[in-house]
Amino acid sequence: MPADNAREVGQRIAATRRSRRMTQSALARASFVSHSMIKSVERGARMPSDTTLEAIATGLSVDPSALRSGYARTEHRVHQALPAISAVLASYDIPLDAPTRGVRELTGAVAQAVTWRLSAQYGRLSHAIPCLLDDSLRTLHSAQGAHRQQAAGLVVSAARSADAIAFKYGAHDLSGRLVDLMRWASPQTDDLLTAASVAYVRAEVFFAARAHKTGLRALESAIDLSPAPDQDNERAARGSLHMRAAVIAARDGDAQSAKLHLSEALRLADQLREGVYDGTAFGPDSVRAHQVSAAVGLGGDHLGHALRTAREWAPPTTMPAERRSGFYIELARAQVWAGLMDDAFGSLKVARHVAPQHTREHPWARETAATLRRLKRADAESLTHFAEWIGAVE
Hints:
This protein is mainly α. Helices cover about 70% and strands about 0% of the residues. It is globular. The relative contact order is 0.07.
């Protein structure tokens, strides 16, 4: 089959946008692509790169292959980026050449990476993150005095964005090394909020190893060391640690600890607005999503709480895409266990709509799709297409 030309791709994007009653400006905002780029692509003047195509597809809530045939899937490019990230880590403590960009430009690039992480745009993130992590380390090694604290903060943030793709694409050893890098750089920031965010991310290591009891102990220690919750950022830092502690306690079957941590997280969340604080989403809605996650982790009689929550509440569109899709993936798992097969498939489709790259790589989404296809309790053709897309067909 001949490759699509720029005009065909542009027409397909424009038609999909109009079918969703979106303006070009609205698509630009939703995809984090400039308005001028959207206009240029739609009129066929430019062929979008893979990363731009993925961003536009995310903004339109479709798979990139629906916009361009022969599209190279995100996971291929992510896996190509992982060795480059590993190479940067190999010399993290060895001063190299000067950075290729100034602190102001680097700060903006790191902030952009955080936005991509939260919106689950892993293709764009994997394209930028090796050089971004390298430049952050070069900046830290060349910084003097108080500037080192800022540079160390950039290293932590860049490493966290790199960890997002490493962890979600199954490179758990690399993820663990990135966490170690964050723990090395964090004390150099002299910032307790940064230390709390690193402790939050470090919990991934315990989830991956299923060392839930140890992970809970580490999180509780981090809570004790976190700053007093006098300001919103401090409340969010401590509350986020309580949220994660609740989920890991639930995975350990410790219902009492999960309940206590959720209660404390909600108390703190009620004192501020939902938002992103130091790279982590926190607020009343985030706590509610984690209540569902804890209920699914505990299983059994607790599943009723997850199902009731889903009937009464849905994550708002202002919540980061990665967290929203995670909610629906976990809900689908609960619905399968409750025998609500059609509802489970519906939840998986919502998760895909919200964050296709995150959903495709989530092991629970793949496991649930495989279970549904095996039981054949949803629309057979539609489910087969979904299972093929997510890789649940052998």
